[in-house]
Amino acid sequence: MSITKLNKVLTASVDELIAKGTAKGKEMVITGMKPAKGEKGVRYFVEGYGNKEFVKMNSNSYLGMSLHPEVIKAEEKATKEFGVGPGAVRFISGTYKHHIELENKLAKFHGKESGMIFSSAYVTSLGVLMPLATDETVYISDELNHNCIIQAMRLSRPLGKAVYKHNNMANLEAKIQEWVGKAKRALVVTDGIFSMRGDNAPLKEFAELCEKYDDQFEEGLISIIDDSHGVGGFGPTGRGTEEYCDANVDIIIGTLGKAFGVNGGYVVTSKAITEYLRQTAPMYIYSNPITVSETAAALKALEILDSNEGLELLKHLGKMTKRFEAGLHTNGYETIEGDHPVVPLMVRDTPKTADLVKFLTEHGVLATGLNFPVVPKGAEEIRFQVNGNHTEADIDYVIDVLKKYKETH
To answer: Taking 80 as the threshold, does the pLDDT of residue 373 lie above it?
Structure first.
């Protein structure tokens, strides 16, 4: 057998993506780090750029926990005690006391009855949404929800699917009403923070609307939020969009791989739901859990967040976010305002987005350009992500680079 024909077809397919301008492009490889010193925060070195130093403005580690000495220490200690991997899935001696402790603490952190860890947040969304959908279930989803939610809906075989206009609660209510009397169960799902834009769902209205129609469905209307970009780095104490909006949803999907700075995903909800998912979610049953060392690191990150140090980190993150937004406004750039550290610079043109990313890279700034089909046509942008270990000097440097771009283009 030969893969020559397939290679030809796939190469042509990739070439077509490149020609359209929708290919992801070459991955940048981080080769080293320079610790924070003086006014400067952490600097990074990138393959192909020699000793050039970069400010990283595209990291999901919103609180800088991935570099926190206590988090690193906790992971190293657990590695020495338990090794580098769990060695099995959860049901075959792959569950360690650290996993149970983290699941319990995450549930308590969010004020839910029970918690459950998956290998990633993407997998968590699949592992929650797919098993909860039956052939008498309808999905109702925000049009800008993350790809993991979209894929979960595509891979399921529900009775129906409905998509409502972004953050439009009147349209959501209309979609719910369309399925009253048709579906036994409704799974209404939204991102907490929309990762391409940094805006948040109006979660209080969302949750109240779901509660209003709950008794219109025989098996209930379940409110679900994927708050991967919210948990840890958003809300007064880092409890995410639910806290920020003073709302209460049935199921929260979160991640350990962003503000907590580690790896893995989780869900917190009722004990009945997590017990059901442990028995039915293939992504949980047939995959190794995160390592014991990663779990220990996540526990330490959670402990730090839920302390005075965590509150100070959140305050600093908020301050740096507002400083960056103000700098964009001062220099005539369009953005979508909000309190979340995802700060989009709206370019609204694919070639211009690529040109600005190139300019930023040449001047030592790592930022992510987002073009169609990742975002809709006309919504092309540079997504900046402010981190808790950015300094005022870091933010001012990036703003200065953007100012120079305006002056020369």
So the answer is: no
Q: Among candidates 154, 231, 220, 144, which has minimal Cα distance to 188?
A: 220
Q: If you search the block for the tokens 């799974």, which residue do you land on?
A: 187
Active-site pick, 156, 195, 228, 293: 195
Measuring CA to CA, how many Å separate 348 from each of 118, 251, 408?
36, 35, 19
Domains and CATH numbers, the chain: 18-53+308-408 (3.90.1150.10), 70-305 (3.40.640.10)
Query: 8-67 pLDDT, tens per residue?
Result: 999 999 998 888 777 777 888 999 999 999 999 999 999 999 999 999 999 999 999 999
Active-site annotation holds for 229: yes
Catalytic residue among 99, 258, 340, 390: 258
pTM of the model: 0.94
At residue 1, does pLDDT exceed 80? no
Q: Specify the pairing of strand 342-346 against strand 265-269.
A: unpaired
195 catalytic residue (yes or no): yes
**127: helix, strand or coil:** helix
CB 253 within 8 A of CB 125: yes
Are 60 and 120 spatial neighbours (Cβ–Cβ below 8 Å)?
no
Calpha distance 291→398 (Å, rounded): 36
Residue 159 · residue 136 · CB < 8 Å: yes
Q: Catalytic residue among 56, 175, 229, 300, which?
A: 229
Q: Running DSSP on this structure, what letter comes out for residue 346? A: E
Assigned token pair, 273 = 């739901």
Instruction: Provide the pLDDT for residue 196.
Output: 84
Cβ atoms 99, 288 nearer than 8 A: no
